[in-house]
Amino acid sequence: MNCPKCQSKMEAVSFSKLPVNRCTHCQGLWFGSTEFNKLKKDDWLATFLDERPTKEGVEHDRMTDVSCPECGSRMKHLADEHQPHILYEECPKECGVYFDAGEFKDLAQTTFWDKFKTRKILGKGK
After folding, report:
1. Segment 26-53 mean pLDDT
2. Which three-class secondary structure state does DSSP give residue 95?
3. Residue 38 φ then ψ, to 5°
């Protein structure tokens, strides 16, 4: 599988027998829909899988034309309901979800300050 953002190879990593794919270049994460729902609030796992934002991840967050690495459909850009500053991509055919480097960790580790962060605007900075 190739990364939907930078097209580099993704490597399979697993935790508790749940597969996750991580880009070997930009460190973005691809979760199958089932795996994402099981792992999204595991802050220890988030630290293990998603160490820190990368320069490429921040730049890729602005991409608006992203295809699903499994089926090729154009992915939807969504903001997390509880932390609207976190934008991610989801396949409309429910193949999975993609997080740029650092976003999954941010999602799993909710802080008091997350309530005050604003949503990033696609194509614009922050």
Report:
1. 70
2. coil
3. -80, -30
In the block, residue with structure tokens 């949503």: 119
Q: How far, CA to CA in Å, does 12 sit from each of 15, 53, 76, 117?
A: 10, 19, 23, 32
What pLDDT, in 10s, does the model give residues 101-113?
A: 888 877 776 654 5
Q: Tokens in use for 73?
A: 């459909």
Q: What is the pTM of this model?
A: 0.77
Where is pLDDT greater, at 114 or 104?
A: 104
Domain ranges of the chain: 10-113
For the sheet with 96-99, list strands across it: 10-15, 18-23, 29-32, 96-99, 87-90, 76-79
What letter would DSSP give residue 81? S
Q: Which amino acid is at 68?
A: C
What separation, in Å, do the N-terminal and C-terminal C-alpha atoms of the chain show?
Answer: 29
